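Predict structure. Chain length: 249.
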Amino acid sequence: MALRIRDGCPECGSVRCKKNGHIHNGKQNYRCKVCGRSFVACPENRVISSEKRTLIKQLLLERISLRGICRAVGVSLRWRLGFITQVYQEAPDSLNIDLKFAGKALEIHVLESEIDELWSVVGNKANKQWVWLALDRKTRQIIAFHVADRSKNSAKQRWEKIPNAYREQAIFYTDEYDSYPGVIPEIQHRPLPKGTGQTNHIERFNCTLRQRVSRRVRQALSFSKNLQNHIGAIKYFICHYNLTKAQAI
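Prediction complete.
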């Protein structure tokens, strides 16, 4: 039976149309029997308000699954995927680090950093991706991070992301993992066994990351399906975390 949709097919004007399933947001889809054009009866572009966008950005900093955010805020999965990609791309590469202690008055402030790594998964639980982190002891800010395997090469890549002021002058406290020697200059390196308390701050941040970013929760189903989004989610949280620490200094 021919259906009169709108005033007809938007392509050829024919009213000879039939139902053709549903589109991604659940609306009835139609197909023109003459030219084959697919369309919906009442097309409308739904505008997501700035208030909802701000709320979604805030929820991305909490341990809520991405589908849970869609249900709570009332947005489609397709729109949310595009929006968070944009949010992650806008996160600054500087990680919002406050370097005011790194360039001046070094005689009254010794640069010290703690380094550690923790595992995460992407795609499935067999695909481990390690998050390499470096933290400033005084400001508690994350000064560099890198996501890769747990090899010495990954340790080198994380080292290259650390700001020059730290690589040239800071003392680095680590555990006794064998990837650090040869990467961190020996004169700046302080490898210590677990339990000494010298890496307490970075280990505490590891706990914060697991509690606040749902992709980082152990043995959960909300692990990342895409490596770039996985890195973007961690970067976005670190940028926000560093800003809160800078305001507290």
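Summary: Residues 1-5 have pLDDT under 50 and may be disordered.
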